[in-house]
Design brief:
about 500 residues, alpha/beta, Rossmann fold, 2 domains, six-stranded parallel β-sheet, six-stranded mixed β-sheet
């Protein structure tokens, strides 16, 4: 039997430095080395979430890390999730269920935080009793001194867990010496001693050029540099944040089906499109440019945390009319979750669940209407495609607020759920919508979506099985980290009594 390891935390000098990816890779390494790791992030802020097997909600990053660990995801892995609703407020999801909304000011005040601290500590305790090690992830920067007293996710959580902390810094953004040294120097002594190593991430160029930099950091910080991890482009791990979506190519490609995903301001669950993005038959891009929309073969309106606000913006910036015009000219339109709601004739919010607007006309592409409700639906889904000739059971998940119903006429469902209930709406193969996230992970549905344009892709091969693809990516990430981290030193640190 292997000796139990210390729990570890990947903390950051800032946001988007690569904590999630490093944590995912270490989960895979520990699994391959015969341990039983599990991920944990006490508090996550993200619109990209996932439904657990028992119908609860967690951040997508922890679902990915669980998959890399060979586990079903569970709310104990991310007991507190904040889902931004506006620039100032977020929905608070505790142990997988929404408990209300909070302004940033109210949330980060010290008062009332102990109840949340008790809840996340209890979740950690349940995980720690079953798995070894717990691979923890911090949030943002560990040196936000103005928020230190209310912090329940970074070093106070590491102290509670008796975890060894490894500080991750992004060298690509510059200022790595100041950010690493400052992040450590600003800590109280009780937290400073928890930091056992430094990981420099996203290095570009010849690694030998940083040999002297590594020694300088070790000398001024008194902490070893565990590794310098190069930037990579050929490993695909699902992303937590949507910050890079706008940078993805808008150029149409000949010989491929051009798919435009509407770049909403509050886009959520954008990982719905990861499989389609890598399909050799498809050129997928994210856009809010009306000309790009008009030139596409397929338009997908994705999920959103604020359906009415994003629908209002689509009408304001001309995208709504561009979508309608493109559809009239032969483009397919698919709406997923909030996008499905927008495709109907109207969205109603009489109880002000989302904001002050009580009604907004939809795009009128489907004969349905939606009423916003305070109750959230969160579940994993198994279903068959209603229009298909076979009865292959497909999989996905639902995370939404609101109820969508027919306008009075009988509608054709897009899917038949495992319990026999009808889901979604389809007018033709070029106009359909549903609440099912992950529907594009199923080859049967992707083939159905692309079929009207198959003449454009006669020479292209189908996409490979996505489950097998993801497992291979986790292995590639683990190999990448093994090559560039001093795993012997890391194991020595997390094995010492």
């Amino acid at each position: 039997m292997k000796r139990r390891l210390h729990n570890i935390m990947l903390a950051g000098t800032g946001s988007d430095v690569g904590k999630s990816i490093i944590a995912t890779g270490l989960c895979r390494i520990f699994l391959k080395d015969g341990y039983s790791p599990a991920p944990f992030k006490a508090q996550n802020m993200a619109l990209n979430s996932f439904a657990t097997k028992d119908g609860l909600e967690i951040g997508r990053a922890q679902a990915v890390q669980a998959e890399a660990s060979g586990l079903e995801c569970h709310t104990d892995m991310n007991p507190l999730l904040l889902k931004p609703q506006s620039d100032h407020t977020s929905q608070v999801v505790l142990n997988g269920k929404p408990i209300g909304s909070s302004s940033a000011y109210d949330y980060f005040r010290k008062e009332g935080k102990e109840e949340l601290r008790v809840a996340v500590n209890a979740a950690f305790d349940r995980l720690s009793a079953k798995y070894d090690p717990i691979v923890m992830e911090g949030a943002g920067s560990i040196s936000e001194m103005n928020l230190a007293e209310s912090d329940i996710v970074n070093l106070p959580m590491a102290k509670y867990a008796n975890a060894d902390v490894f500080l991750v810094a992004d060298i690509d953004r510059g200022g790595v010496f100041a950010s690493v040294y400052g992040s450590i120097a600003l800590q109280k002594e009780e937290y400073k001693k928890l930091i056992k190593g430094i990981i420099i991430n996203k290095f570009r160029g010849d690694l030998r050029l940083f040999d002297s930099g590594k020694k300088i950091l070790e000398d001024i910080c008194g902490v070893p540099v565990i590794g310098v991890v190069p930037y990579y482009k050929d490993i695909y791990i699902e992303e937590e944040d949507s910050v890079d979506l706008a940078a993805k190519s808008f150029t149409r490609e000949k010989g491929k089906i051009n798919v435009a995903v509407i770049l909403l301001r509050h886009i959520s669950n954008f990982t719905d499109f990861n499989v389609l993005e890598r399909d050799p038959r498809v050129h997928l891009y994210y856009t809010s440019n009306t000309e790009d929309i008009k030139k596409s073969d397929i338009i997908i309106i994705p999920g959103t945390k604020s359906t009415i606000d994003d629908l209002y913006e689509l009408r304001r910036n001309g995208c709504a009319q561009a979508i309608i015009q493109a559809h009239r000219n032969g483009a397919s339109v698919l709406g997923i979750c909030g996008g499905y709601q927008m495709m109907g004739t109207q969205v109603l919010d009489p109880d002000h669940i989302e904001g002050e607007i009580e009604m907004l006309p939809g795009l009128g592409l489907l004969p349905v209407s939606t009423k916003m409700t305070g109750e959230k639906t969160t579940r994993q889904s198994r279903f068959t495609l209603a229009p298909a000739n076979n009865k292959e059971l497909l999989q996905g998940y639902e995370i939404h607020m609101g109820e969508t119903i027919s306008n009075g006429e009988e509608i054709k469902p897009l899917a038949i759920m495992e319990d026999g209930k009808q889901e979604g709406c389809i007018i033709t193969q070029k106009s359909m919508g549903c609440y099912i996230h992950g529907i594009l992970d199923n080859p049967a549905f992707t083939d159905f979506l692309l079929e009207p344009f198959k003449e454009k892709t006669q020479a292209a091969n189908k996409a490979e099985d996505y489950t097998a693809f993801k497992q291979r990516q986790y292995d590639l990430l683990a190999s990448h980290l093994r090559k560039h981290l001093d795993m012997n030193l890391l194991y020595q640190i997390i094995s010492n009594d």
